[in-house]
Amino acid sequence: MGKRMVFVGAGAVGGYVGGHLARAGEDVTLIDPWPDHIEQIKQHGIHLSGTQGEHTVRVKALHLHEVQRLFAQPVDIAFICTKSYDTEWATMLIKQYLAPGGFVVSLQNSINEERIANIVGWGKVVGCIASTIGVDAYQAGHVIRTVQPGGSAYTVFRVGEVHGRITSRVQELVRMLSAVDSAKATANLWGERWSKLTVNAMGNGISACTGMSSKAMIESDTARRVSIRLAGEAIRIGHALGYTLESVRGVPPEQ
Fold it and tell me: Are the C-beta atoms of 201 and 194 separated by less than 8 Å?
């Protein structure tokens, strides 16, 4: 019997990854606080479009007030795909529905493993970085991908244990996520996390302050110079904390 998976947060990343896993035949349930989104999925399935083609996938979906139904079928793998500030309540929501061997995967930006561990314990936490996936919850029931799949040229999903060992559950997650895009097991979860945090720090704040798109920031000499300085600061802090950083947008962190 396959693993029972839930995605707490079924917006851009959760809806896209969960939808494609369901399309690949996995047992997936999507949970989200956006009522119209869940209702659309219940009635018509989730529509996935963009660079990986057009697909409408029938997948189980629950409103927050329906989550108690999971008592009948406990959860083997719970993906947390909310914004970072929603991590605690999302983890608390799903904690009581975990199977005895169940665990929680942070499929989020930022570094939230410790927040999750404070609720379920370190032994039930796995980290997963979605690097340059480029997805957007376009409208209720519709998620679009705007960048090309990584494929063999670029690894999108990096799955790792907090202690760095490659375990059977990490390998199983890699196998499943490979149905969505390229995936690998990493022994360097914290370095991967900090490298992704650096990428986010390079652009998110500038975009929020200026309203510029990613393309506009790259084309602006001033914005690009600020972005590079932000990357340098983030990398220096990561090194000071003892992390082994991965390349940042294809550039070695030392550079």
Answer: no
**Distances 213 to 121, 189, 203, 208 between C-alpha atoms, Å:** 39, 29, 9, 9
In eight-state DSSP terms, residue 26 is -
Q: According to the model, what pLDDT value does residue 151 have? A: 84
Contact 196, 249 (CB under 8 A): no
CB 141 within 8 A of CB 47: yes
pLDDT value at position 250?
87
The reply to whether the predicted model has a pTM over 0.85 is: yes
Residues 53 and 68 in one domain: yes
* Domain span including residue 80: 4-187
Tell me: do 150 and 44 sit in the same domain: yes
pLDDT lower than 50: segments of the chain: none
DSSP 176-203: HHTTTS-EEE-S-HHHHHHHHHHHHHHH
